């Protein structure tokens, strides 16, 4: 068996792994990345990028349907789903560079003098990894193996050809009807996408609200908007079983507080979350938490001082932006260990994590919810502003929306917020910066905002406060 030796070995080339490679190579470490699939991980290849391309097409189709509102006329808008899929593929190719593994990412790693080995990695011991007969040894290792789908134990699910969430973003055909099991960001985005193009959707969520980790008031806007698009939203529901009916139709049996219904659909999509991918890591003897994720310190260090981990494999908030941040911390600190540098390790800072769900209109949030603040401090200072009354909103014929700010009841420091409306994903960073800079809610009301913009709603919300 042939052998190679490096300072740093990184398992996985997703957001965390790629960032770790950049950090480690910047300190002069000899780095090798092991990847079992395409470089870049799921986000550019099957998740974030293709979904946003498809949702952009859906947004364009909605605008075409509303063109008369702006005093224009055109033919009845139509689409061919196959052509929309081609647009998605072109976007993915632009960001990845195309090719078997992702030519753009291959060039980037080459420029960093980082080697790449393709294949599935398995630990032989905590310093050695075997990849298809090749032994790779390193002074320090970063584990960035990502996550796998969590598939609920639903009777009959394993007997049908259901789609994983990423299948709904990669298929070339459009089902006439679809049941989506799950009510998180991915499920809501898939519902928005297919409902726009005419698929009959039933969205089945076990929790009593969609986007269950988010502010309830803002999440209701999303639910109401999906219903307005024709989506059958069923919350507080358990899928009791699924049967394979005749004629290519599945029967999805749902129980809501004892009331049983059956939904006949052409396709079932499972979007019920993810869990850490730790297969092949057993020989490293890493400490795992109750969910099976790798336990790490703020330095992204595991229970072995030369082994680090970052991204989804560590559990917690599984987002591309957090994975990138954790990956950099892990790669940098791993390089310090491998190169025997005495510099102080850096630590992760996840105090401020902006999140965006690309529904219509967008939903964005950052920091604590009002419920969390009230539970922690006894009361909460809340500022609200309606987006639909803004001059910009009226000019754009935008849907209803809200800006909700959450602040400490005594210090008035901004602790969180959520936005539902056009460009919410861009607007949320004003709130994120305010939290990061430890600003009071009064500073937002004092700052001049451009007119007419959607961001005016942030200033308006900061000026209309109630103690709850």
UniProtKB/TrEMBL annotation:
<comment type="similarity">
    <text>Belongs to the class-I pyridine nucleotide-disulfide oxidoreductase family.</text>
</comment>
<dbReference type="InterPro" id="IPR001100">
    <property type="entry name" value="Pyr_nuc-diS_OxRdtase"/>
</dbReference>
<keyword id="KW-0560">Oxidoreductase</keyword>
<dbReference type="Pfam" id="PF02852">
    <property type="entry name" value="Pyr_redox_dim"/>
</dbReference>
<dbReference type="GO" id="GO:0003955">
    <property type="term" value="F:NAD(P)H dehydrogenase (quinone) activity"/>
</dbReference>
<dbReference type="InterPro" id="IPR004099">
    <property type="entry name" value="Pyr_nucl-diS_OxRdtase_dimer"/>
</dbReference>
<feature type="binding site">
    <location>
        <position position="312"/>
    </location>
    <ligand>
        <name>FAD</name>
    </ligand>
</feature>
<feature type="domain" description="Pyridine nucleotide-disulphide oxidoreductase dimerisation">
    <location>
        <begin position="353"/>
        <end position="461"/>
    </location>
</feature>
<dbReference type="InterPro" id="IPR016156">
    <property type="entry name" value="FAD/NAD-linked_Rdtase_dimer_sf"/>
</dbReference>
<dbReference type="InterPro" id="IPR036188">
    <property type="entry name" value="FAD/NAD-bd_sf"/>
</dbReference>
<feature type="disulfide bond" description="Redox-active">
    <location>
        <begin position="43"/>
        <end position="48"/>
    </location>
</feature>
<protein>
    <recommendedName>
        <fullName>NAD(P)/FAD-dependent oxidoreductase</fullName>
    </recommendedName>
</protein>
<feature type="binding site">
    <location>
        <begin position="182"/>
        <end position="189"/>
    </location>
    <ligand>
        <name>NAD(+)</name>
    </ligand>
</feature>
<keyword id="KW-0547">Nucleotide-binding</keyword>
<feature type="binding site">
    <location>
        <position position="52"/>
    </location>
    <ligand>
        <name>FAD</name>
    </ligand>
</feature>
<feature type="binding site">
    <location>
        <position position="273"/>
    </location>
    <ligand>
        <name>NAD(+)</name>
    </ligand>
</feature>
<keyword id="KW-0285">Flavoprotein</keyword>
<keyword id="KW-0274">FAD</keyword>
<dbReference type="GO" id="GO:0050660">
    <property type="term" value="F:flavin adenine dinucleotide binding"/>
</dbReference>
<feature type="domain" description="FAD/NAD(P)-binding">
    <location>
        <begin position="6"/>
        <end position="327"/>
    </location>
</feature>
<feature type="binding site">
    <location>
        <begin position="145"/>
        <end position="147"/>
    </location>
    <ligand>
        <name>FAD</name>
    </ligand>
</feature>
<dbReference type="InterPro" id="IPR023753">
    <property type="entry name" value="FAD/NAD-binding_dom"/>
</dbReference>
<dbReference type="Pfam" id="PF07992">
    <property type="entry name" value="Pyr_redox_2"/>
</dbReference>
<keyword id="KW-0520">NAD</keyword>
